[in-house]
Structure formats: C-alpha cells, structure tokens
Amino acid sequence: MAMAMAMSKTSGSKLEHEAAKLVAVADILADKARRVMKAIENFHLLRELKKSSVPPHKINPTLASNFRKLSAQARRSEVVLEDLRNAYIFMTSQREHKVLLDRYNPLVDLTAEERIHATARRVGLDMPITHEPENDNCDPSSITFDESTGESKITSQNTLNSLSIAAKHLTNLQPVAFPTETVYGLGALALNNSAASCIFSVKGRPPDNPLIVHVSSLDMLHSLLPSSFKMPKSYELLMKRFWPGALTLLFPSDPNTIPSIITANQPTVAIRMPSHPVARALISLVNTPIAAPSANSSGKPSPTTAEHVRRDLSGKLNLILDGGACGVGLESTVVDGLQEDGKIRVLRPGGITVEDIQETLQEGIRDRESVPQVLVHRRDYRDEELEAAPTTPGMKYRHYSPTALVTLLMTKSPLPKSVVPSNVESFLLSIKDTINPSASVKVGLLTLTDSALGTLALPVVNGVEWCRYELGPSDVPSVTARRLFDGLLTLDQRGVDMILIEEVNETNEGLAIMNRVRKAASEVQWITF
Ligand code: TXA
Ligand code: MG
C-alpha cells in the first residue's frame, strides 16, 4: 500500500513538473502569438489598401515589398497559429488531468465503491455505505512503544496489516473505528476539515459539540500548542502520572493549527494521549493527531466492543479495528486547568478518578497551600454560562440512552423530603402495568452482585420476563464501570422494554458511573427494602 501511495505521489509530482514546463512554453507561445497577431493586423490593413482603388505597390515600391513580406509572414502565421491552438488544447487538457489527479490520487488504492463514497464526500454528498464494515482484528499484546520517540513496534504481521489498512483509510480522509482503553473511538484526521466533518455525519453529532484530539507522543502534543503557551505545573504532574491514559486536558487552541470544526469555535482544544496500544500505534502510524469521539450514534451509550460499534454504525463506515473489549469502559475524565485561579475543574468525570487526581497534585506539590483545589462540575460548582454551552460534556444533548427507557433505582442516597419511596416488591409487581398492561413485557435489570437488589429473588409475574445483567461487586467500582455500557447495550439487544438500574456509591469510578446513569435515565424511583 505504501508503495502504491508513493507511486501515486511520484506521478503527481512528475506531473506538477510537466505542468510547470508547459506553463513556461505557453508564455513563450503567447508572446509569439502577440507578434503574429500584430502581423495579421498589418496584413489585414494592407489587404484593405489592396482592395482600394490604387494598389499600394504602385504607389510605393518599399511599401510593396513590405506588403509581400507581410503576406508571406501571415501565411506562415497561420501555421504557427494552428500549432498554437493545438498546444493550447494539449496544455489545458494536461492541466485538467493534473487537477483530477491531485483530487483523486489519494483514492487510487481504494475499491470502486470506496472511491465513489470518498468522491461523494468531497463534493459534499452524504452517501450511505451499503456494505458491512470490515472487522479487522488487532492483537494489542503484539504492540510496544519506544517511550522516548513515541514510535510503535508491532510484532504480529496480522496486526500490522490491519493497522496499515486503517491508516490508509484515515489518510484517505475516511473515518475508522478503533479501540481505546476507555471506549471505542470514531477517528479521523484532526487537522483536516473534511476528514473531521465525516465524524459529525457518521455520528449524527451536532456541530457545536467539540471533539477530543488524540496524540501518540508529547512531541505531537507540543506541535499543536501555541508557542506562547506555558505548561502549568498541575498539567505537568497530571500528564506524567496519567498519560498515556484516560485523562483529557483542555489547552488553548491555536486557530492556525486546529480547525474550528474540532473546537466548535471554542478558545480551547481537548487533547489526550490514549494508552491502548492499538489506538496509540494507529496515531503514530499516520503520524498526525486523530480526532475521535466515542464511536456511537449521538445520544446512544458508548461502545466498549467492536461488536457494539458494528451494531450501531454498520453501513456508515468502512472499517472497525477490533482490539477486544475496552479495559476502563467509561470515557476519559475531561479536565480544565486553564482558569486564572489555577483550580482544576473536572468537566466530565471519567476513567481517571477525582481521588487519583487530588492525590497526584498533593504528592507533586510540596507546599500544601499551593496545591490546586479539584472541583467537580455540578457537584462542587455550577457555571450557568458553561451549562448552556455544549462544551460541558453531556450537558446540552441527550446522552447514553439505549432504545429501552431507563429507570434509576435510588437505594442508597438519603431520601429527599418530598419523595415517597416504593417498596421494592410492590414496585416490581406493578411494573407490567406501567409498561404495557395488555401485552407481555421484558424488563432488564442492571444490579450489583452483592446488593439488596442484586441478591433479591425476582417475583414471578404473569407476562413479565426478567433479564438480569450483573455489574460486579459494590466495592469494585472499576468492574461496574467496565460493564455499564455493555450492560445497557446487551439488554437493548435482548429487546427489553425497560431497564432498571441500581444506584452505586459515588466514590472513585462511582462518580463517573452515576454521571452516565443519571443522563441515561428518564425516570428516578426511590426504593425501600
Ligand atoms: O475516552 C474518551 O474521551 C473517548 C475516547 C474515544 O477517547 N472520547 C469521547 O469523546 O468520549 P466524546 O466526543 O464522546 O466526548 C468528548 C467530550 C464531549 O462531550 C465534549 O463536549 C467535550 O469532551 N469537549 C471536547 N472539547 C472540549 C473543549 N474544548 N472544552 C470542553 N469540553 C470539550
Ligand atoms: Mg460520546
């Protein structure tokens, strides 16, 4: 593939050289043409004179000889003119050929159908892809990194092939789904407008929701930052501890480097370095940053397996790299440490816990007074202006919602004064009537393995089929985090009419879990046992 691309690049630059030569020839020809035209003009003048009552050669012998010379010149000129005309036709066709080559060179390695789609996108058409996306397997354990250069070493030929195909799609400005340690991402070249715009059309994502840019090395990060930017101490500490990993940091965006489609015209750009070997190797292979939101249709739960992506986006993209199930299972933690007060604001809790962020800052900054406070949006502070903008992750738009309605069962938090709780048994017995009294229903339950709800024997109710999916033990929230989206998507796949999901403690990963669960749920029910 690399050779084919190199060849098409070579033929492109050869043509460019040919075109430059042709332009120089055209200039010379144009100059000649001007002179020929002048001669023809004189010739016409003389012909007019000839037509007049007194022939010019009879008036003045010098004029007569000039007239002869000019006539001969004009006859020759017609030949030159014909040559000129042919040269001009040849040149314009070569120019058109070069324009077409420039435009379609990147497509030479694609199949006919891929070429049609890429062409359609270039001219602003959004054509549905009719075939199934390819699922290419990658073995993450076959990939290692040289931490000083950020370059990858891949020992499995199969993985190398899959990554090369994915890199080819990306450089051809096409999106590719790939695994990260958090969730599967839908990647496209971050610094190319038309590539990045595909992400929005494939996901059905509103254009005012900015994207995270993924880098594979610190050098790549620095290539994106404005030269005047001074890295805050807090960022240095956080990057040292959590990069590569599930932490996204906001940086000032340099509008000369980052397209506005990525930032949705915000003054900041969100950047992270993923730790998943497949994600990092892919970025290092294309050697340019990759923009990647979660690889789901807007509003749906994020995918944590290649199969989730295929079910959701099949027909909308050509390639899904399959690197197995994601280890973290929830998206990265989005952090803004750029405010003047130096405080660390967690805009979206995620894979890196607030507790770990606090601990890292405390360990790294000796002077206790100087350790920045870590604030979680909505838990510790509100920002109305921010909340009105879609840049606060998950604020403006519907999020994480499977097809089935989700009800959050509150079992731990103190009961608010105005709320009357339901007894768990009577709630479960009455559920069929709330969903559909006249037909059989399927009810999904996402419960912890050791909680009161998780260990409850479910009542036998006529016309109700219970489908339970376990979220792991209550004291290991990282397991619940890994299983949450898979639980929502698996129950949806089983065709449940409603999903009941149990509240978890909001410590460590629990904060991010409850953040997603609250957004997925359209109803909240307080339960007693
Ligand atoms: O783990 C992750 O972060 C995954 C994987 C694929 O890397 N990506 C992901 O992207 O979750 P997405 O687009 O689904 O969520 C990114 C969130 C969005 O809600 C967006 O509002 C926020 O990050 N975001 C992006 N740029 C921002 C910015 N400049 N300021 C504030 N928030 C931003
Ligand atoms: Mg998302």
From TrEMBL:
<dbReference type="Pfam" id="PF03481">
    <property type="entry name" value="Sua5_C"/>
</dbReference>
<dbReference type="GO" id="GO:0006450">
    <property type="term" value="P:regulation of translational fidelity"/>
</dbReference>
<comment type="function">
    <text>Required for the formation of a threonylcarbamoyl group on adenosine at position 37 (t(6)A37) in tRNAs that read codons beginning with adenine. Likely catalyzes the conversion of L-threonine, HCO(3)(-)/CO(2) and ATP to give threonylcarbamoyl-AMP (TC-AMP) as the acyladenylate intermediate, with the release of diphosphate. Required for normal translation, by ensuring translation fidelity at the level of codon recognition, appropriate translation initiation selection and maintenance of reading frame. Also involved in telomere replication.</text>
</comment>
<dbReference type="GO" id="GO:0003725">
    <property type="term" value="F:double-stranded RNA binding"/>
</dbReference>
<dbReference type="Pfam" id="PF13233">
    <property type="entry name" value="Complex1_LYR_2"/>
</dbReference>
<dbReference type="Pfam" id="PF01300">
    <property type="entry name" value="Sua5_yciO_yrdC"/>
</dbReference>
<keyword id="KW-0819">tRNA processing</keyword>
<dbReference type="InterPro" id="IPR017945">
    <property type="entry name" value="DHBP_synth_RibB-like_a/b_dom"/>
</dbReference>
<comment type="similarity">
    <text>Belongs to the SUA5 family.</text>
</comment>
<feature type="domain" description="YrdC-like">
    <location>
        <begin position="160"/>
        <end position="352"/>
    </location>
</feature>
<keyword id="KW-0963">Cytoplasm</keyword>
<dbReference type="GO" id="GO:0005737">
    <property type="term" value="C:cytoplasm"/>
</dbReference>
<keyword id="KW-0067">ATP-binding</keyword>
<dbReference type="InterPro" id="IPR005145">
    <property type="entry name" value="Sua5_C"/>
</dbReference>
<dbReference type="GO" id="GO:0005524">
    <property type="term" value="F:ATP binding"/>
</dbReference>
<protein>
    <recommendedName>
        <fullName>Threonylcarbamoyl-AMP synthase</fullName>
        <ecNumber>2.7.7.87</ecNumber>
    </recommendedName>
</protein>
<dbReference type="InterPro" id="IPR038385">
    <property type="entry name" value="Sua5/YwlC_C"/>
</dbReference>
<dbReference type="GO" id="GO:0002949">
    <property type="term" value="P:tRNA threonylcarbamoyladenosine modification"/>
</dbReference>
<keyword id="KW-0808">Transferase</keyword>
<dbReference type="InterPro" id="IPR050156">
    <property type="entry name" value="TC-AMP_synthase_SUA5"/>
</dbReference>
<keyword id="KW-0547">Nucleotide-binding</keyword>
<dbReference type="InterPro" id="IPR006070">
    <property type="entry name" value="Sua5-like_dom"/>
</dbReference>
<keyword id="KW-0548">Nucleotidyltransferase</keyword>
<dbReference type="GO" id="GO:0061710">
    <property type="term" value="F:L-threonylcarbamoyladenylate synthase"/>
</dbReference>
<dbReference type="GO" id="GO:0000049">
    <property type="term" value="F:tRNA binding"/>
</dbReference>
